[in-house]
Amino acid sequence: MENLSREKIIEILKDESQNDWLFSLADEVRKKYVGDEVHLRGLIEFSNICKRTCKYCGLRCENKNLERYRISPEDMILYAQKAVEMGYKTLVLQSGEDEFYSRDVMCKIIEQIKNFDVAITLGIGEKSYEDYKAYKDVGADRFLLRIETTDRNLYEKMHPNMSFDNRLRCLKDLKTLGYEVGTGCLVGLPGQTVESLADDILFFKEIGADMIGVGPFISHPQTPLKDSDNGSFILALKVMALVRILLKDINIPATTAMETLNPNGRIIALQSGANVVMPNVTTTEYRAKYEIYPGKICINENPSQCRGCIEAKIKAIGRTISTDKGFHKKFQD
Ligand code: 5AD
Ligand code: FES
Fold first, then answer.
1. Backbone angles phi and psi of 304, in degrees to 5
2. What is the whole-number distance in angstroms between the Cα of residue 298 and the centre of ligand 2?
3. Which range marks the domain in which residue 189 is found?
């Protein structure tokens, strides 16, 4: 199955009668290669300020209807410490592309947080090789940068003043520097084809990704895509299941966007190939403002409520919570 052809992938994506088979096969592959443990990554959304104008994203700088915030480095370190005390072994530091956090500022934050004996994942966008190297040198372990779509024309339409080639350059630099690299795509962007989703899946395999996040596009009223339809939960789940079947032992999150479109979305994803959940550990006051898309879950909860909620749901389906840092197998020794 790991050598599914492009044609076969397209056929599976189009054929709704194969869905149940696909989801159970992905669940079996998940169990065989990464077991029943679910890795929890504590997510700190530390700034919603962004210089980019991605057409689908509510944080785009042209959205003047959003109250912006920046969490100070001191507070980030405090929240990180609290998350570690709660049991998190990995923290994901995510933000818009906000130049306030210069190379030096980011490095100081990473260095301090590394004192808590925790793995650090960054999700802070496109940077230079030198920036990526500096973060790695002070202890960053992983980096998330979705390609969003491998359809070059669609990519450039969705990302004014950005280039597909630079996105590829970033992913390549991150690999070269020895990060665990996470990428992924949006499912249901206006103009996206099933064929291009098949290409996305094959691209993830080709670059040897360590983590893949897949989520449905959700239309945001304060963006140029406000009149577009949302992506499909089932199609996003199918793309994710195929990724599990082809890439086998990588880490795959049950994404928040899936739960936004389906009230049990993350658990369904965990039973269709996913083995990671990223509960929000940002304090409640900021959550509603990190509005990438509308209807985001957990905006009224606090970090310990989310931890308790997701732990209970995971245990209820017979899975366990991992107590280690949850590196991709090839990075373990
Ligand atoms: N709907 C769903 N996902 C979105 N993202 C950004 N905007 C949206 C949206 N409107 C995703 C992108 C990005 C990740 C952090 O959030 O894929 O990489
Ligand atoms: Fe936040 Fe369930 S994970 S309330």
1. -75, -30
2. 5
3. 6-324
The domain spanning residue 92 has which CATH number?
Answer: 3.20.20.70
311 lines ligand 2 (CB under 6 A): no
- Residue to mutate, 292, 296, 297, ligand 1, most ligand atoms under 8 Å from C-beta: 292
Q: Work out the average pLDDT over 174-192.
A: 98
CB 292 within 8 A of CB 256: no
Q: Is the CB of 306 under 6 A from ligand 2?
A: yes
Res. 2: pLDDT tops 70: no
Number of structural domains the chain divides into: 1
266 part of a folded domain = yes
The answer to whether residues 140 and 122 touch, using CB atoms and an 8 Å cutoff, is yes
Burial class (CB in 10 A: 0-12, 13-18, 19+), 52: middle
% pLDDT > 90, the chain? 98
DSSP 8-state assignment for residue 69: -
For ligand 2, pick from 278, 296, 302, 305 the residue to mutate: most ligand atoms within 8 Å of CB. 305
299 ligand 2 Cβ < 6 A: no
User: According to the model, what pLDDT value does residue 332 have?
Assistant: 75
Residue 305 CA to residue 292 CA, distance in Å, equals 22
Q: Are 66 and 222 in contact (CB under 8 A)?
A: yes
User: Torsion angle of alpha carbons 313, 314, 316, 321, nearest 10°?
Assistant: -130
Out of 46, 47, 56, mutate this one to test ligand 1's pocket (max ligand atoms within 8 Å of CB): namely: 56
Q: Rounded mean pLDDT of 267-288?
A: 98
Residue 3's pLDDT is 83
How far is the centre of ligand 1, averaged over its atoms, from the C-alpha of 32 (Å)? 30
Residue 332 lies in a domain: no
Minimum CA distance residue for ligand 2 atom 1? 306
Q: Is residue 329 part of a domain?
A: no
Distance in Å, CA 121 to ligand 1 centroid: 17
Indicate whether residue 42 lines ligand 2 (CB < 6 A). Answer: no
pTM over 0.90: yes
The answer to whether residue 331 sits within a structural domain is: no
The DSSP H or E segment spanning 33 is helix 19-34
